[in-house]
Specification:
mainly alpha; 0% strand
């Protein structure tokens, strides 16, 4: 079993990496809103952020070399995360949160689920 301190460090790195991934996703989302609707903008932004996030999560957050197995787990985790984000985006828009902020609400709501799944992917033996 891993020491609590290492889990804490992983979570801190996850949060820092996640903040950078969110910044990338949000920037692309705002740019794409100029050309398309919120759901398509979020999809394109998610894909761009996904690429950055996989590399950084592997090497920096969990200190593991990227493998096809980890990519499969990461994809599985992010399919769940993407669906959760789209549901939360729909809810935010339904609650009349402006398009420019609705994606931030959706991203924030999906963070705990994503960390839990990714931790399992990167730390299982």
């Amino acid at each position: 079993m891993e020491p609590v301190a290492e889990k804490r460090r992983q979570f801190i790195r996850f949060c820092i990496n996640g903040a950078a991934a969110v910044a990338i996703q949000y920037g692309v989302y705002l740019l794409m809103l100029e050309y398309t609707g919120a759901f398509m903008a979020n999809t394109v932004a998610y894909a761009v952020s996904f690429c950055y996030n996989f590399i950084m999560t592997s090497y920096w957050t969990f200190g593991r070399k990227p493998t096809f197995g980890k990519l499969a787990g990461f994809c599985g985790s992010h399919i769940v995360n993407y669906i959760a984000q789209q549901i939360f985006l729909c809810l935010a828009l339904w609650l009349s949160i402006p398009d420019a902020y609705a994606a931030l609400v959706a991203m924030a709501c999906a963070v705990p689920v994503n960390f839990t799944i990714l931790r399992l992917v990167y730390t299982r033996r």
